[in-house]
Amino acid sequence: MAIGFIGLGNLGRAITTRLNDVGEQLVVYNRNQDKIKDLPYEKAQTPRELYSKCDVIFMCLFDSNAVSQIFSMENGLLCDEIKGKTIIDLTTNHYDDVLKFHDIVNSMGGNYLENPVFGSVAPALQGALTVVSSGKKEVFQSVKPILEKIAKEIFHLETPSSATKMKLINNLCLGSFMATLAECTAMAENCEIPKDKALEILGVGGGQSLVLKAKTQKLIDEDFSAHFSNNAINKDLHLLQDLAFKMQKPLYSAAVPKELFSKMKDMGKGEEDFCSIYQLFKG
Question: pTM for this one?
């Protein structure tokens, strides 16, 4: 049976490409149909239509508001046909909203698996993402063979909302690393050290990381086409600060990178890749 897929942005396109490459049949839906007219997959006109051809449906959307719309829109996913179907939500949701998604899908006889993605376009194309799932163990086990086609590392935290919280925590590392690496790169250039050489040295020195490996060439070329956008990291760091506030816990190191990415958004650069924060330091 085909796999359903909702949300064909940068990451969604990469994941569907990977699934197609390993032989999976896909039926896709995107709110903006014009953006997917070039894709070689069968296209559904509504989310509900996917149920007639798919037992498993992925969602890969920007935020919880987008997920809510797909659920509740006319001919959305919340309908009688949801019974026995599994929804794998790759979206980085709000940590409270995702609890509501678990409750409503499961109460209607469907299966909801919270499954945020760690990684962006390049690892997605290679089937080398990391995914962390939360939801019923039996649901996770049933779809794990599909997840293994897109992910190299797979974890299960059974308690709902745990995967979402872990994704936000991970993205504090991601945003902090990227901001620091960008500033280091600009500082080296100000010292008249060639950018490519500085990045090579950082890559075997203190800057050694998956972030730098993924972004070195983009920084050299100043290619800021989005794999993971400033808007996305800004949203996630805001959510993490909200979580810390709710827990009445201090969160010291998130404030500066969050404000830096907020500045990028304010400058009209929200749709650029988050490595474009380099422009703030380049001078």
Answer: 0.94
